[in-house]
């Protein structure tokens, strides 16, 4: 029988806590009188310092430079360096599962299958079917000590009823390792040693003496991941209506007579739990324990002067490619970083292109292998250089399985509406009067994929600084195309004050959000006031929590038909400040079909340069296959539309998380890209002499950021656009 809501208010549909039988550690049983709101406040600073000073017994495995890279002579085309032979994570032999609790809050755990084979396999079975995605941390407990002793999750989904996730059969106890700090153990009922199912807990102290009876240790936290767990352990806890939720952690919430119950946005949510490789892969999702940081070429003088034009570098998976461009000598530095920002030692080496080098056309990047959905799109990119372009013009010829294709002479090869017959091996030949070069090959696999598993845009966000009147943040987006019909549930937010909790400076104090379809206003909000539909959609789509129901952030939840929309965000108070505009697709994945409307475009115009923040757009590619996007940072071309303060020379950079992917300064008027832009309704850019910036990329599922800045530093208006290519 459902239990009453926690601190049930007369008219608050925010959160219902349903009593569901579940495995767990030895929970104290609550009497009816104890089912009231009881807070455990964060520890004082002195105790936090004690907690962080505890030994990291089970923690290990920081990025390590195992073998320095030697000096390189590059005289016959590109040289490739396998970085897995130079960097590593010592001591890691088991599979690694990454817990993603939000931006900059990832925890890597090495699974200890040898010590607890049954429990480790059980845990990995839940991970493999994404059972932990969108679940909550439902218990933080001191176990009678003065500091948090454990953080528990894996049992309840972040839904209005906090329902239990589907559980497999229990597994037997395998208590072979101690419950030291930094271990992950399988939770079980206090009286049933062989009752572990889906739940797990992180030990923030040595609990070997605090939890008698034996528990199966299934993993250990890697690197400095315990700093994330320690921060989560400082959350306030409240007493729920049953023993399983007796010490429920929340954030940004203090009970009041007007708001006695937390909303879903106040819960600590685990976004995803995935098995990841140690090294980034060349094909598919690049998420890995390690990523690599490559410096620009430089001369080791007092200022480490950056030098361009001698070599070009590109990174595909764990392979560094160095391409000679001209005679000369420069230095590079390479290091490895883990998910928590820990860095290995840096290896510095010299790269020399000697005078006798053959410098016919050379590729500055090579096409990358891809797996796409049948009916989707793919883009191969193989830019090259070779002497002065006006004297030695380049000619591109794409080939498939060795056979020349009838495709434009372009460093891009765009394949739309991919069919099974398009699968094969592709390469590019580039020629000028000095010779011909052939790129490294790349394979294309085309797989039949259901509509809800195809790569698609599900979240669009734009951040910049704006003010109360003269310079609002204006964001446009589009729903649907000629292939779709119906309506789409949306969550739209204008976030200012809550950005402060994410360490964003100078936030907008009181954003006001207005939404228009063409010229018709369809929604407006000043303060979101804990609206239950907004809270439910925020939890459903994985949006970060706003700082309480009384925050001055703005948000609306609505259902909209196909069309073009504009969001305008202004500051209700005087002055400018950083603000984030977000649009989330709230369509449940199970309901997506071929005709379901989708988010296909976002654009934002704002001031950049002149000491201002950059214009930043984020987007999420969901599904199991890549999506192709066209991203543009437009400055000078805005003058044709009457914009008299257009940015003079915008630069466009693309990142996945903190990993740099690509950049463009001047797009050089590629005709194939221009034709593609015209086919999706983007206004034309000049084909010659344009200082606007363009990127065309096929991206695997993940979270991406595009950033527009003004390289001439004069400042001006820039338009940042992201289009999905189908």
**Count the strands?**
46
Number of discrete domains: 4
The CATH topology of the largest domain is given as: Jelly Rolls
Regions with pLDDT < 50 over 5+ consecutive residues? 1-58
State the helicity in percent bands.
Answer: under 10%
**Distance, first to last CA:** 48 Å
The fraction of residues assigned to DSSP E strands is 35-45%
Main beta-sheet annotation: 9 strands, antiparallel
What structural class do you assign from the helix and strand content? Answer: mainly beta
Assembly context of the chains: single chain
CATH architecture of the largest domain: Sandwich
Number of helices: 5
Radius of gyration computed on alpha carbons: 27 Å
What is the overall silhouette?
Answer: globular
Strand order of the largest sheet: 14-7-8-10-9-11-6-5-15
For this structure, what is the CATH homologous superfamily of the largest domain? Mitogen Ypm
- Estimate the mean pLDDT confidence: 85
**CATH class wording of the largest domain:** Mainly Beta
Secondary structure layout:
Layout: H1 45-52, E1 64-65, E2 72-73, E3 79-82, E4 87-88, E5 96-100, E6 106-111, H2 117-128, E7 135-141, E8 150-157, E9 183-186, E10 200-203, E11 217-221, H3 226-233, E12 236-238, E13 248-250, E14 269-270, E15 272-276, E16 290-294, E17 311-316, E18 319-324, E19 328-338, E20 347-353, E21 362-363, E22 370-373, E23 378-381, E24 384-385, E25 395-400, E26 403-404, E27 412-415, E28 424-432, E29 435-438, E30 442-447, E31 456-466, E32 473-479, E33 487-495, E34 511-517, E35 520-525, H4 532-541, E36 554-561, E37 563-571, E38 577-585, E39 599-608, E40 615-622, E41 627-634, E42 650-656, E43 659-664, H5 671-679, E44 693-699, E45 702-710, E46 716-725
């Amino acid at each position: 029988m459902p239990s009453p809501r926690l601190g049930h208010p007369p008219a608050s549909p925010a959160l219902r806590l349903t009593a569901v039988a579940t495995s767990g550690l030895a929970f104290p049983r609550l009497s009816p009188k104890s089912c009231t709101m009881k807070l455990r406040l964060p520890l004082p600073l002195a105790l936090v310092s004690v907690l962080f000073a505890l030994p990291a017994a089970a923690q290990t495995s920081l990025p390590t430079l195992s073998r320095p890279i030697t000096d390189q002579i590059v005289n016959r085309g590109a040289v490739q360096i396998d970085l897995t032979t130079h960097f590593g994570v010592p001591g890691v032999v088991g599979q690694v599962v990454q817990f993603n609790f939000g931006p900059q809050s990832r925890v890597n755990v090495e699974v200890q299958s040898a010590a607890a084979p049954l429990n480790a396999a059980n845990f990995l079975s839940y991970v493999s079917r994404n059972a932990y995605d969108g679940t909550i941390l439902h218990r933080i407990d001191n176990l009678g000590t003065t500091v948090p002793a454990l953080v528990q999750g894996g049992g309840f989904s972040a839904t209005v009823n906090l329902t239990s996730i589907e559980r497999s059969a229990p597994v037997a106890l395998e208590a072979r390792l101690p419950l030291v700090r930094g271990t992950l153990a399988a939770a079980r009922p206090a009286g049933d040693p062989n009752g572990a199912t889906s739940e797990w807990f992180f030990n923030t102290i040595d609990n070997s003496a605090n939890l008698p009876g034996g528990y199966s240790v299934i993993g250990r936290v890697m690197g400095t991941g315990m700093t994330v767990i320690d921060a989560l352990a400082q959350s306030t806890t409240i007493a729920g209506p049953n023993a399983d939720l007796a010490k429920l952690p929340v954030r940004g919430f203090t009970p009041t007579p007007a708001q006695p119950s937390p909303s879903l946005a106040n819960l600590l949510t685990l976004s995803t739990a995935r098995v990841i490789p140690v090294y980034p892969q060349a094909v598919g999702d690049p998420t890995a324990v390690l990523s690599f940081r490559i410096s620009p070429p430089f001369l080791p003088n007092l200022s480490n002067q950056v030098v361009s034009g001698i070599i070009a570098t590109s990174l595909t998976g764990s392979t560094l490619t160095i391409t000679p461009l001209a005679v000369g000598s420069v230095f590079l530095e390479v290091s490895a970083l883990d998910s928590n920002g820990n860095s290995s030692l840096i290896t510095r080496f010299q790269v020399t292109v000697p005078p006798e080098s053959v410098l016919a056309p050379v590729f500055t990047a090579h096409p990358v292998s891809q797996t796409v959905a049948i009916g989707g799109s793919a883009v191969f990119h193989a830019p090259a250089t070779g002497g002065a372009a006006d004297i030695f013009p380049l000619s591109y010829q794409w080939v498939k399985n060795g056979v020349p294709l009838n495709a434009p002479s372009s460093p891009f090869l765009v394949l739309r509406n991919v069919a099974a017959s398009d699968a094969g091996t592709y390469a590019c030949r580039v020629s000028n009067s000095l010779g011909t070069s052939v790129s490294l090959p790349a394979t294309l696999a085309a797989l039949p994929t259901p509509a809800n598993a195809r790569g698609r845009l599900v979240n669009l966000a734009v951040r910049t600084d704006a003010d109360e009147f003269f310079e609002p943040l204006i964001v446009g987006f589009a729903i649907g195309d000629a292939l779709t019909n119906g309506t789409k549930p949306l969550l739209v937010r204008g976030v200012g004050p809550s950005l402060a909790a994410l360490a964003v400076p100078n936030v907008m104090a009181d954003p006001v959000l207005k939404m228009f379809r063409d010229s018709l206003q369809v929604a407006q909000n000043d303060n979101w006031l804990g609206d239950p539909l907004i809270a439910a959609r925020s939890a459903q789509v994985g949006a970060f929590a706003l700082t309480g129901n009384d925050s001055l952030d703005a948000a609306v939840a609505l259902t909209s038909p196909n069309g073009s929309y504009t969001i305008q965000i202004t500051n209700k108070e005087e002055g400018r400040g950083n603000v984030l505009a977000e649009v989330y697709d709230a369509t449940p994945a199970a309901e997506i079909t071929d005709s379901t409307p989708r988010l296909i475009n976002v654009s934002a115009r704002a001031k950049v340069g002149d000491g201002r923040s950059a214009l930043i757009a984020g987007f999420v590619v969901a599904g199991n296959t890549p999506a192709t996007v066209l991203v543009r940072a437009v400055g000078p071309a805005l003058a044709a539309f009457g914009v008299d303060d257009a940015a003079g020379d915008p630069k466009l950079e693309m990142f996945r998380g903190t990993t740099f992917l690509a950049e463009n300064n001047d797009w050089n008027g590629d005709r194939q890209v221009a034709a593609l832009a015209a086919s999706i309704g983007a206004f034309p850019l000049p084909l010659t002499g344009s200082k606007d910036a363009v990127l065309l990329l096929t991206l695997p599922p993940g979270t991406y950021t595009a950033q527009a800045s003004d390289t001439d530093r004069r400042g001006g208006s820039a338009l940042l656009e992201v289009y999905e290519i189908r």
